[in-house]
Amino acid sequence: MKIRTILVFLLIIVIGYVIFQYQKYSSRPMPTELHPIVEDNKEDLIKQANQLGISIVITDSFRSAAEQNAIYQKGRETEGTIVTYAKAGESYHNYGLAIDFALQTNEGNVIWDLEYDGNQNGESDWMEVVEIAKNLDFSWGGDFTRFKDYPHLQMDFGLSIRELKWGKRPEGVVD
Questions:
Q1: Quick check: helix, strand or coil at residue 117?
Q2: How far is CA 98 from the centre of its chain?
Q3: Does the domain formed by 30-166 have CATH 1.10.3210.10?
Q4: Nearest Cα to Cα of residue 151 among 143, 161, 160
Q5: Full DSSP string of 18-70
Q6: Domain range list for the chain
Q7: For the segment 97-138, what is each residue's pLDDT rounded down to a tens digit?
Q8: DSSP secondary-structure letter at 171?
Q9: Predicted local confidence at residue 74, as pLDDT
């Protein structure tokens, strides 16, 4: 009986903590642009890639809820192929913490070719960009275990989507 009472008490504490955390952050507004550190690291990524003779294009960054839902509908309710499994609020793009990139050839074409070696150094330009991004503390979607998202780079600052939905934001973000 005593163990049961202790377990119930611990459960009440945990539930209270979760409610407190949710209420503490739930009134925070959604971001409307890239997080400043993500923005700075995006610019550094472009510069460092250029120094290697690789031109990249940022094809996507911050997305509003409406934009996310429109992308989610592709291949489902609208024409096209499925490009995301994340509805509004379920993508790091919605919190200004993710970007997508592509390569730009010397002819100006935008490509998503993981094997392309435009700077002709014997290495995949794509993987050279990924290496730079990882050194800038981005996580790469190609390392995801469930759904490989090769153009995707994110900085989650240790926050899960659940925490972001609750209103938590990276340290240093002021409401």
A1: coil
A2: 3
A3: no
A4: 143
A5: HHHHHHHHTTPPPP-S--HHHHHHHHHHHHHHHHTT-EEEEEE----HHHHHH
A6: 30-166
A7: 999 999 999 999 999 999 999 999 999 999 999 999 999 999
A8: T
A9: 93
